[in-house]
Amino acid sequence: VMTKKYVDGVPLARQEKIWARQGVELSRATMANWVIRCAQSWLKPLYKHMKRQLLKQSVIHADETVVQVLKEDNKPAASESRMWLYASGEYSSQHIRIFEYQPDRSGKRPESFLKGFSGCLITDGYAGYNQVQKVTHCGCWAHARRKFDEALQTLPKEKRQDSLAATGECYCTRLFQLEQPLMDLTPEERYTKRLELEKPVLDALLAWANEASAKTAPKSALGKALHYLREQWPYLKRFLEDGRLEISNNRAERSIKPFVMGRKNWLFANTEGGAQSSAIVYSLIETARENNLDPYRYLVHVFSKAP
Question: Against a cut of 0.90, is the pTM above it?
Fold first, then answer.
């Protein structure tokens, strides 16, 4: 049931019909209770241990997305809650993915979750992450490039090629092109090569952005892209300081995507307990997949050993 819902994206309501066709009377309510009971009784201790291990890592990527919970205290059914995702970095000693359900997008959520973590935190620039203290905040070049692409899409096709938006996107794309051959280097080698190859591009980009900002309407799509770039600059350039850092937050976006894809099918959680249990199950499944383990066989192993 868990594998079908959280790996294959088959909602419990649909599973109920599938079981019925096979002659098995199994209600969605029963399956939901199974998931919640198993998550809370057997998976939660492992989930907490995984979180402790994650906070020991030197680099963490973070992201969040919307989740709707129908029966939530003091909130209408149509209101939006959040599923947060925290992922260990490329060079972490253990590859861990932790999902956490919270009723809102407040910055106090990551602040609370990451208490005790003192490494590098890579995010998309959402201001709420600034509440996290005693960490080194790092930016995401994929988001910077996306802002320029959005500005590019507002222009007529015949005017895009020679536009300022195209120039900004070209600078960002150049960074990713230079980064690609460095993927197989050690962090120390990558650090050296970045200073040699990518720092000149960053210096040129900042000089261009300062000049372009002076002649761009602040509220235009390009103005917003330039504002994001300049505001985030202290965090965007931080990858030059440590070869273990990635230049984007794509690792977190890839890790949260299975939840986003599953949400398209099952649409919402019924209760807070269901949302919390889903976070626990997603954490174990995505961590298993990140470590090249089969999720079904991994869950069978956990449920065999945990009791």
Answer: yes
